[in-house]
Amino acid sequence: METSTTLTNEIITNDLLPQKFGKRGMIWTGILIAFCVVGAFAYYMQLKNGLSVTAMRDYVSWGIYISNFVFFVAISLVGSLITAVFRLANVKWSTPLTRIAEIIAVSAIFFASLIIIVDMGRPERLFNLFVYGRLQSPIMWDVIVITTYFFISLLLLFFPLLPDLKILISSKEVLGKSFSKLYRFLGSFWKGTRLQDKLNKRAVNILCIIIIPVAFCIHTVTSWLFATTYRPGWDSTNFGAYFISGAFLVGAGGVLVAMYVFRKVYALEKYITTLHFDKMGRIVVLLALLYLYFNVNEYLVPAFKMKKSEEAHLTGLFTGEYAPLFWFAILAGMIIPIFILIFKRGRNPLPAFIAGILVVVGAWFKRFLIVTPTLLHPFLPMTDVPESYKHYFPSWQEWAIAMGSLAGALLVITFFARIFPIIPIQETINEQHETGNK
Amino acid sequence: MKNNDTSRRDFLATALLAGVASGCSSNNPFDPGDNKKVPSGEMVKLLSVDGEIIEVDKAFLNPVPEVPTLTNSEERIGIEGKKFVMVIDLSRCKNVGACKVACNHAHHLNPGQNWIKIHAMEDAEHTAPYWQPTTCMHCDEPPCVKVCPVDATFKRKDGIVLIDNERCIGCRFCMAACPYSTRVFNWQEPILEEKIATQHYSCETSVPQKIGTVSKCDFCPDMARKGELPHCVSACPNGVYFFGDMNEDSVTNGAETFRFSDLIKDKAGYRLMEDLGTKPRVYYLPPVNRNFPFESGLEKDTTEKNNSK
Ligand code: SF4
Ligand code: SF4
Which chain B positions have a beta carbon within 8 Å of A123's beta carbon? Predict the structure, then answer.
């Protein structure tokens, strides 16, 4: 079976087992932890002094916390795209990417819920949501679908991990005692019998089917947080689809970035090949075009009519205060990545990685542009308020907390990759056998 | 004040009960720590909870430090049989701002916070500018109530939209949802006198304000319970505000009383942003045949004019 093109089980296992942090890994983790500590300190200040430490005021009552939340929810959708959509569509090449996508999803959705708590004026009253919660509020819908999505994603991470846990437990010598306790705790019931295998496959299949509607719900509901208000710029029937297409785009961009990084750091060139970059690149182009299409719908149609209530908002974006950011988000988030990835050479790892970064950064600013400018253009003029209420630029505490949460999400991913194989070992072996047998 | 007479009866029982509570605390001659009480022989007549008159020796009266006269659930229901409504006559407004001052004072608002905002409005380039005071519209289809996840903002049977500051989680969704931008957030710990800050929070007085929660114009239901007009109405020297009860079909600014339906019909009253479907309870009378030129209020207003409706 071991032809020249296939790898032996041993090589695969050895290649994919989690490795110790090198020097680079240490520095990277250190930086992330530093960001988290600063963020935590800023949050402590906010708890002590109230939300007045932020730059939010009565008009801009939602700021980068909420845009960060939307960003997290968006990027978390990638889990369902890569795992569920591809699996159901019987796309085989995505196997090495599934776990990367799932861990991005889990950590992003976890930090999405954290940042929402950070945004609350009274976080200690969180339990009120359960005591007095009312279903008519889109916030309750969000609470419900986010929780559901989190647990499904967690299971989708866990079930395919089970066969790998068995391998991890058996290679105790390589990995050290402390971790093997954890592996045994998580997976000692897994014997890998035929029945267990069958059940596991079934479970994963069922999860893949239910996660797709839940994924659509979570981001649609998040878009409805805005679309259910009357505000110019939010009052749109396009919002659900617009948000979902944007979410898939930023998710796919995030996977491109993560693929490149893991491949480099863990020397996984044999598993994450240029073929993967090529395919993911094509997908990003497709998704970027789709998102661009929704953007045209979102901005061109109201701009054509230029209703009075929308006017200030739209001119602010196109030519006004927010124009640099707006055009940056459109160019960096969609148009330039399309131009890079549409060419075969652009789908090589490095250019694809750069395109991925552009997509992700553009998407973060896009979320900021969706949330903030609208609030600065209320229906009635801003009268009888202090001057500081009329502008918004996040305070350092807000930046620190937002960056801290992003660093936290990356930290979760980093630690996960340190403890568990980031590419499914057992599945890779199985697929090797399949292709090898052919 | 026509609506006073009928409401007075309703208030009687509550007022008396309240009298018991506050009466003993304010002129209590005894040391509250004294537990060996000797009957003084001096009897006091009181109204019992069942409505009977009872007599109690003065010595046995205990001061009740500060009892909320209404429970939270009573506050959530509202005043029986009422449908409060406000009419704002734009032809009389001169941007004096007395309404705002009185409101801020009565509700102990912090500097920079205003529940009443007096906008300088101009609907289009060549139309006449005018002053438009805005309060919470107490919408009948209130978007703020719809979006509140914990029922901290609620609509009462008497039409008033109130906020329960003990319950609000500070998500500020209601602020994003209110198209009239009337909501105010307590970004920091409100600066309040000790006496006010330690009071029991009442949805009807909206006092004391709490950090991390929202507040807004409440139509002064505590005044209505006493049969009095909201602070802004009685403070305005030009009689811009009219307050009243739709069920009685009358509104008053303290000096003049009108039949609400006639007033709206004769002066072509309208509501703000009717197209949004929020069904406000605040009606406006158009700024025609003005009592004052627009310029006479300009010196008070430094904010820029805005062309939106
Ligand atoms: S004016 Fe705003 S705050 Fe007042 S009831 Fe209507 S939506 Fe709510
Ligand atoms: S800020 Fe308070 S009142 Fe407003 S929606 Fe949130 S919980 Fe309700």
Answer: 169
